[in-house]
Each structure stands twice: as structure tokens, then as C-alpha cells.
Design a protein that fits this description.
The complex is a heterodimer of chains A (173) and B (279). Chain A is mainly alpha-helical. Chain A is built from four helices and no strands. An eight-stranded mixed sheet of chain B has the order 2-1-3-4-8-7-10-9, with helices on both faces. Chain B has a two-stranded antiparallel sheet with strand order 5-6. Classes of the chains: A mainly alpha (173), B alpha/beta (279).
Chain lengths: 173, 279
């Protein structure tokens, strides 16, 4: 299947995109949790693990939506993202072994915002009425996630400058 | 492009092992690992029919992180291992992985001859232009003025090794460059490389955030190749003359027949040897 345009997305293709967004985010958070576990950053590891669990529930939810039992497969490079990676998945390059829960939640917030933008774009431009309606609902859900993460972020204020300073850095020759 | 399977039986996560990677958070190799598992899922490869072979270095740890057969070999010798395996077991999909130090310095000679021999394997090099595992020394692809290592305080002062040029000149049948900032694009290239007959080579720009932190900027600097892949080596060579080391895409897809020796006679001989050693 070639890359579908946003305008011509079918319900099945919208579900495929939704599934890919949630599944990639689940995988990415799980990998980031592993990274933090390996580097003894337990607080952030636990947070990423929790985020992976939540995304896993979203994957299951997509599968229970009407048509969710026959979602077509679209190759990852044919998914319609504005960027090179799934909107909701944090970029691997943004991780740091000394990152704090605040940084992790900022990444999550960014992902939810990008996902909301994606579904809003589909809702605004899809030619199929059902696709537009479903995309509006999905965008609304992502906006609810944004609000939730903003609440979490309020509990973890921005760390002071110098948070990444390590008295025994790995690149000390 | 898809694999023709409506509901694939195996997903990317099925190819990932339970071993946790020990790379530095932020390392580009995580993205490459993700691209490899996506590739295997797109091709729906039976994990028991895949062998991932590596040498030594940070990126060479990848076989442990995959749920396929793997071999973490000795420094610079991943390619002869991979070539030997493919010759003996042509039914397997053989992916050789490693870094720029392993592949172009210690294993440089093997790289030339693997390209020349054109056995049907895929070689993926995660190039971060530094020896990361041994704490940041200049590698063959390091810029001559990179002065952040105490071993080369004024920079290595030597022109870097140019993997795509060497691959083309030596006879590789598929040559491409990818960026770890685009795991989906890397997966697509890897699918094409595995499907293409003969020796396929992909250089993946994969930042070392610890010893080359400025490489985080690569994701903003890489750009798609302006032209499609060619099967004409002369055209490919001309394109490389204007390469800025940051284009991503497939440069060359050759038509040379892969080398696959007939081993039947030797296998009979091996059976005789087995009998001689039987207890």
C-alpha cells in the first residue's frame, strides 16, 4: 500500500495510523524505560514504564474501535507523518541519562501535542465524513492527554540549570 | 510499499530480545535497532532464518538485542564471518552490523574484499566518526580537525575514509546512506538492501552523543539525495564527487550477479571428515 494522502484517508487507514501512533509510542517509552533502568535513573524509568503501559492501553482501545479487528497493514515509511517518526513517540536523541521526570513529561507532552495536531489536520482535510468525525474524536482524546500531562508536569517543576552536570562524566578521557 | 500481508504475524517487537541495551541514552544506535526490527517485521522473516553478525564496538552489541541468531565476533572480522555463513547457508538472511572503527579500520581490508566478492549479504555500518567504546578516539571517518581527543589534540590531520566511494570502487552491488534520525526511512532502505541480490552496504549516520555531541545536529543537516538510485557506476561516481556526506538515499543499485560457490563436493568431503572424527 502506497502512502495515502490525508485528504483521501479511509476509516481503515485512519485506524492504521492511530494504531501505529500508539504502538510506536508504547515501544519507544518501553525502550526509554530500559535505558533509564540501565543508567540507574529509577524515577524516570518508572515514569517511562508507566507511559508505556498507558500507550499499551491505547493500542488495545484502537483495536476495539469499529473496524479495529481488520486494520490494514501500512509500511512504516508510508504512514502520513509530517516528520520522520511517529508524532507521539519521543525521539531517541532527546534522552539523557541524567534527565528528570520534568524532562520526560515534556517529551510526553510534545508527543501528545503532535498527535493532536495530526488528527486535527485529518479532521480538517479528510474528504470522508466518517473519517473527519473519527479524527475529531481522536484529536479530542489527544487533547485530553495533553491536559493530563500538563497536570503531571505541574508536580515536577523545571530543574535548575546544571542538571546535566556529572562530576564523573562518561566522556572524561 | 507493503509486504502483501494484511495482518502480519510478527511485529517489530517480536524481533527484539529481552536484553537491555547499554548504549548511552540519546545514542543513534537505538533508532537503528528499531529500524532493524521494523525491517524484519516488514519482510516477515522467520527469526530462526536470520543471522546478525557483528564485530566489536558499541554498535556491534546489536545481535544481543535481537531475537534472531547472532554472533558477536572479534574486532573487524564480522564480514568474513558473515560471508562464510552465507556461503555455507545460502538459505539464511545474513545481516552484518558494526561501527566505523570496526568496519573501516580494523576490518577495512575485509570491507574491500566483501564488496568485491559480492556475496548476497547486507552490511550496515553505524557511523559516528569516533571510537566510542574506548572513550572517544578518532576513527577512520573522523574529520581531520576534530580536536576533542587527548590522543589527537590538534585533530587526526588525515583525510577521512570515504565509505561510499570505497564501496563503489570495490564492487558493492547496493550502496546507500541513511540517518538514524529517520528510523522509518532507514527501515525502508534496509528492506531494499536485503532484497537486492549481492553485497549491500548502508552507511547510517548514527550520532555519538557522548563523544561527538555536536552530531545531535545531524538530524537538521541531513537531506534527501536529489536524484534516484542509478545502476551505472560511472554516474554514481560522478554523484559522489559532489557529495557533502550528509545526503541520505540509495546511491547505487548494481546488476552484478552475486557470488555463491557450489559447495556440494566440499560438503561430501566434509561428511567424510565427520566420519573420520566420529567417536
Amino acid at each position: 500500500m502506497n502512502a495515502p494522502s490525508v485528504e483521501s484517508l479511509t476509516v481503515a487507514e485512519l485506524l492504521a495510523h492511530s494504531l501505529a501512533i500508539e504502538a510506536e509510542a508504547e515501544e519507544r517509552y518501553a525502550m526509554l524505560a530500559e535505558q533509564m533502568e540501565v543508567h540507574n535513573n529509577e524515577a524516570v524509568a518508572a515514569l517511562f514504564r508507566r507511559l508505556a503501559e498507558i500507550e499499551g492501553k491505547h493500542v488495545a482501545k484502537v483495536r476495539t474501535m469499529p473496524g479495529g479487528d481488520s486494520i490494514p497493514h501500512i509500511a512504516p515509511w508510508n504512514l502520513h507523518w509530517a516528520g520522520q517518526t511517529s508524532p507521539e513517540a519521543p525521539e531517541f536523541g532527546e534522552a539523557h541519562y541524567l534527565m528528570t521526570p520534568h524532562h520526560a513529561l515534556e517529551l510526553a507532552l510534545q508527543g501528545e501535542c503532535y498527535a493532536a495536531e495530526f488528527f486535527s489536520e485529518v479532521a480538517a482535510s479528510a474528504s470522508d465524513e466518517t473519517v473527519r468525525r473519527m479524527a475529531q474524536e481522536l484529536a479530542q482524546e489527544e487533547r485530553e492527554h495533553v491536559a493530563l500531562i500538563e497536570q503531571w508536569l505541574a508536580r515536577y517543576p523545571k530543574p535548575e540549570a546544571g542538571w546535566a552536570e556529572d562530576p564523573d562524566p562518561p566522556n572524561q578521557a | 510499499m507493503d509486504n502483501g500481508i494484511a495482518n502480519p504475524a510478527l511485529s517489530a517487537r517480536d524481533y527484539k530480545s529481552s536484553v537491555k541495551p547499554v548504549w548511552c541514552p540519546g545514542c543513534g544506535d537505538f533508532s537503528v535497532l528499531s529500524a532493524i526490527t521494523k525491517t524484519f517485521a516488514e519482510l516477515q522473516l522467520d527469526p530462526a532464518q536470520v543471522a546478525v553478525i557483528s564485530g566489536i564496538g558499541c554498535s556491534s552489541r546489536i545481535p544481543a538485542y535481537l531475537n534472531t541468531y547472532g554472533f558477536h565476533g572479534v574486532h573487524g572480522r564480522a564480514l568474513p564471518l558473515g560471508v562464510g555463513l552465507k556461503v555455507a547457508r545460502p538459505d539464511l538472511t545474513v545481516l552484518v552490523t558494526g561501527g566505523d572503527g570496526d568496519g573501516f579500520s580494523i576490518g577495512g581490508n575485509h570491507f574491500l574484499h566483501a564488496c568485491r566478492r559480492n556475496v548476497d549479504i547486507t552490511y550496515l555500518v553505524m557511523d559516528n566518526q569516533v571510537y566510542g567504546m574506548t572513550k572517544g578516539q578518532a576513527s577512520p571517518t573522523t574529520a581531520p580537525d576534530w580536536a576533542l581527543s587527548k590522543l589527537t589534540p590538534e585533530g587526526p590531520g588525515i583525510n577521512p575514509f570515504y565509505p561510499l566511494v570505497i564501496a563503489l570502487a570495490s564492487g558493492a552491488n547496493f550502496i546507500a546512506r541513511a540517518s538514524s534520525s529517520d528510523p522509518n526511512g532507514t527501515a525502508r532502505m534496509l528492506v531494499d538492501a536485503i532484497r537486492h541480490p549481492g553485497f549491500s552496504f548502508i552507511q547510517v549516520l548514527s550520532p555519538c552523543v557522548t563523544f561527538q555531541p555536536e552530531q545531535r545536529e545531524w538530524k537538521k543537516l541531513v537531506h534527501p539525495a536529489p536524484v534516484e538510485a542509478t545502476s551505472d557506476p560511472a554516474k554514481a561516481a560522478r554523484r559522489l564527487m559532489t557529495d557533502d556526506n550528509l545526503f541520505v538515499g540509495v546511491l547505487y543499485q548494481g546488476t552484478r550477479k552475486p557470488f555463491q560457490p557450489c559447495l556440494e563436493a566440499d560438503l561430501e568431503h566434509a561428511a567424510e571428515l565427520d566420519e573420520a572424527f566420529a567417536i
